Amino acid sequence: MGEVWRVAISDSFNKFLGKVLTFLPNLLAMITILIIGFLIAWIVKKIIFRFLKAIQFDKVTERWGVAEVLSKGGMTYSPASLLSRFFYWVIVLITLIMGINALDVPATQNLIAQFFNYLPHLFAAILILIVGYLIAIFLGQAALIAAVNAQMESARLLGRCVRWFIVILSLTMALYHLGIAEKVILAAFTITFGGIVLALALALGWGGRELAKDFLERLYRRKEKEEKGQDHISHI
Question: Which of 18, 106, 157, 166 has the fewest CB within 10 Å, making it most exposed?
Answer without folding.
Answer: 106
